[in-house]
Amino acid sequence: MSLVTLLPFIVLIGAMFLMTRSAKKKQQAAAQMRNDMQPGTGVRTIGGMYATVKEIQEDTVLLEVAPGVHAVYAKNSIGAVLDDAEYNRIVHGDDELEGDDTVVPDDASSLTTGGSSDDVAKIDLGKKAEDDGAPKDTEAKDAKADGEGDAK
């Protein structure tokens, strides 16, 4: 056997090694994040629920999902451990803008220049009334058009 015939197998094994190595690193990072959790920190579960850690056992975590409401979750169900600022911004709605004071508007009305909305022509999206002079028997013609009207 020559090296040329073994080259595809070597490349395939190398690719598999690289893929499993990166997946293993991600799993180790997630396990380390879960082990570094402390009571009082905010977390997001893999289901998207935000809660505060109350107690940590070996394989489970006691979370406070609402004031006075506690639930037991598996440690593996914790998707992310959030820092205090991010947790308060998401859960409590604390909108502290950090950095520059740039505010993005919710709509595009402030982006238009000059003119008022009265100057813009209004478009009527309603259904137009049928003409009175049009024949009313168009439905009968349409029924015969699909081939079922005269068939016996």
Describe this structure in words.
The protein is built from 3 helices and 5 strands; from the N terminus they run αβββββαα. It has helices spanning 3-35, 84-91, 138-145, and strands at 42-45, 50-56, 60-66, 69-74, 78-82. It has 152 residues and is α+β, with helices and mostly antiparallel strands. Strands 4-3-2-1-5 form a 5-stranded antiparallel sheet.
Distance between the termini: 77 Å
What characterizes the major β-sheet?
5 strands, antiparallel
Question: Helical proportion?
Answer: 25-40%
- H-E order: HEEEEEHH
What is the averaged pLDDT score? Answer: 78
Shape: flat
Unreliably modeled segments: none
Total count of strands = 5
Helix/strand/pairing class, anyone? alpha+beta
Give the helix tally: 3
Report the radius of gyration as a whole number of Å. 32 Å
The largest beta-sheet arranges its strands as 4-3-2-1-5
Q: Please give the oligomerization state of what you see.
A: single chain
Task: Record keyword descriptors for this entry.
single chain; 152 residues; alpha+beta; five-stranded antiparallel beta sheet; 5 strands
Short description:
The chain is an alpha+beta fold. The chain contains 3 helices and 5 strands; from the N terminus they run H-E-E-E-E-E-H-H.
Chain-wise SSE layout:
Elements (H helix, E strand, L loop, with lengths): L2 H33 L6 E4 L4 E7 L3 E7 L2 E6 L3 E5 L1 H8 L46 H8 L7
Antiparallel strand pairs: 1-2, 1-5, 2-3, 3-4
